Amino acid sequence: MMALLARDLKLAVRAGGGFGLGLAFFLIVTVLVPFGVGPETALLTRIAPGVLWIGALLACLLSLDRILALDWEDGTLDLLATAPLPMEGIVSVKALAHWITTGLPLVLAAPVLGVLLNLAPGGYLWVLVSLAVGTPALSVIGTFGAALTIGLKRGGLLLSLLVLPLYVPTLIFGAEVARRGAEGLEVATPLLLLGGISFGAMALLPFASAAVLRINLR
Amino acid sequence: MVLRVSNLEISRGGRAVLEGVSFALAPGAALILRGPNGVGKTTLLRTVAGLQEAEAGEITGAGESMAYAGHSDGLKSMLTVAENLQFWAAVFGRSEIEAALAAFDLRELAGRLAGSLSAGQKRRLGLARLMVTGRAIWVLDEPTVSLDAASVGLFAAAVRGHLAQGGSALMATHIDLGLEEAAVLDLSAFRARPRAAQGDEAFL
Amino acid sequence: MGRYVRFMSLWEYANPVKFIRTTDVVLPWVSVLAVLCLVVGLIWGFFFTPEDYRQGSTVKIIYLHVPAALMAINAWMMMLVASLIWIIRRHHVSALAARAAAPVGAVMTLIALATGALWGQPMWGTWWAWDPRLTSFLILFLFYLGYMALWSAIEDDDTAADLTSILCLVGSVFAVLSRYAVNFWNQGLHQGASLSLDKEENVADVFYFPLLVCIAGFVLLFIALVFLRTQTEIRARRTRALIAREQQG
Amino acid sequence: MMPDLGKYAGAVLSSYAVALGLIVVLVALSIWRARRVKAALDLVEKRNKRHG
């Protein structure tokens, strides 16, 4: 398992695209928003937490199809399925690798991009915390979507259609934590709910992803 | 560990292709599957490897002692030859890769990225992967594709060495490896009689 | 004792041929009843009920809005049950019935959304409010779209049935989560459930009885459509199976 | 005959139009596809009977 994680991380570093593309996309989305809604700082301050969450979510979505597709195309998944690793473990490690290469950089970049959106001073910490708690759920749910659409020709678009509705609860609670944090309100309740969704998804969804992958491999 | 297949029935795309397939593969033995294209060699091997479920029949002795190599080698072009092997060794809980590199004449290529190898070299690396798994039963699907005569010789020697150590090999191949000790099983004899596909039966 | 030997198990209807034979008999009756209920209920509601003192004539939209909303959720529930039956017992009719129900559920969701928006415009002064109920239905609609898209994207019938069943299961959990999340996110303008047992909040009797007839009509319409569409799916599958057999020789 | 819908006539009438329209389209499409698929199946079944 550790070997699989180490290999995925090494591949992400070598191939370059892993970290860079998602981050660049996040940056561009954040930069485009003021062009769309106008440069008024008070407005930007108000929408900053939500925009950061949407940007992170879309950047995450962009890289989902790479989680399993590459290993599927070169036959690695077939070989991994015959290796002494449980399929649930394989999909969990794949999701973890995706989080480390895509989710974590987004979490760390969000406060920096918050400056561009004139995020309220109290918001930086909670944007960081909410993304740190919420993005693992995005990776795990995304892995499920990637497993469902593996090997389909028009998989990319279908993947978005399947995954985006599943992202709704995570987005709502995550953005709520960030927004309340920025406005100096109590954040404990949404944070607990966000954590619940994140841990629940991490604990249960790998079973669904593994079942789906076994069906797709046969 | 004896690999035993009894009265196996398998299907491809929901359609029965082979039935009544039975054989046993003892340690030190090799079995070569033959038959025209489409007879079900790949499907049989994937079923033995556990990637696909059999429609009927039983397979015992595979599972934890089996290493599978299919049409694709599962190599990462951005990793070096040595790193690719180290990864697969680690997946199977091992670390030794020197013997495999030597057996397939990959020592000099060890530091090269797998993406820069020729097709034949990649195949050799894919086969070297079998040695690092430490598994006793090799299940090989067309292992000699894109190998030149010398490389086929290397492969045959590796298989012979594996058999000598008490391993066994089940493979589908058309070319003559010069493995006199290998038994040959022609799958044409087990072709399934035409019938409805498994999933379709309920609708006919 | 002997009487029970001939008792027919419910599972026998999972045989495609038996299903078609049975529904062929039932379908005309259900259809006629559905049309009857809808015509009676809607005419009763539209022409012979008074206006609400607060909502004016818009209250008449209730006869479409509430039954459609109920069926939008019930259709998904039915798909969930059918998916579970497919996963556990692998009855083909069950998987195909889930597939057949999805477009019906999607249209019901669309009707609930459209009538809701048309109702909301005069009542709340806006076509669309991000009210929890409306939002939940919009999310439900997206789930229907994804489910149908996955069915049509996969070529192998049984693989498609397996994958969509798992999606339906996972989707159900996330749909419930979304419902709570959306509630938390916005407390909303929408009135409570129209048919709740709480007498205070309930709609008055004059509206209640025609509404019940309309609900019965929508339920029967749903059943009739699912029967018809499941028959179609079974026939399509049988056609493919026969052609495949011909080609095999 | 027609009840007086007052100032909300537009909303009420368009609700009925949209909802009934969607239902009619759904029913029509279902029936149309049912007929087509049934015809295709009959054709194949007849062919199968003839050939044995």
Automatic annotation (TrEMBL), chain A:
Topology of this chain in the membrane: Multi-pass membrane protein
Record keyword Ligase present: no
GO MF term set: heme transmembrane transporter activity
Superkingdom to which the source organism belongs: Bacteria
CC per GO annotation: plasma membrane
Subcellular location, record wording: Cell inner membrane
Keywords: Cell inner membrane, Cell membrane, Cytochrome c-type biogenesis, Membrane, Transmembrane, Transmembrane helix, Transport
Entry annotated with the keyword DNA repair: no
Alphabetical list of Pfam families matching this protein: CcmB
TM ranges: 12-37, 43-64, 96-117, 123-150, 157-175, 187-213
Gene Ontology terms describing biological process: cytochrome c biosynthetic process; cytochrome complex assembly
Protein family (similarity comment): Belongs to the CcmB/CycW/HelB family.
Function: Required for the export of heme to the periplasm for the biogenesis of c-type cytochromes.
The protein, known as: Heme exporter protein B
Naturally occurring in which organism (per UniProt): Puniceibacterium antarcticum
From TrEMBL, chain B:
Every ABC transporter domain range: 3-202
Gene Ontology biological process terms from the UniProt entry: cytochrome complex assembly
Keywords assigned: ATP-binding, Cytochrome c-type biogenesis, Membrane, Nucleotide-binding, Translocase, Transport
MF-aspect GO terms: ATP binding; ATP hydrolysis activity; transmembrane transporter activity
InterPro entries associated with the record: AAA+_ATPase, ABC_transporter-like_ATP-bd, ABC_transporter-like_CS, ABC_transptr_haem_export_CcmA, P-loop_NTPase
Protein name per Swiss-Prot or TrEMBL: ABC transporter domain-containing protein
A Pfam family: ABC_tran
Record PANTHER family: ABC TRANSPORTER I FAMILY MEMBER 1
Translocase recorded as keyword: yes
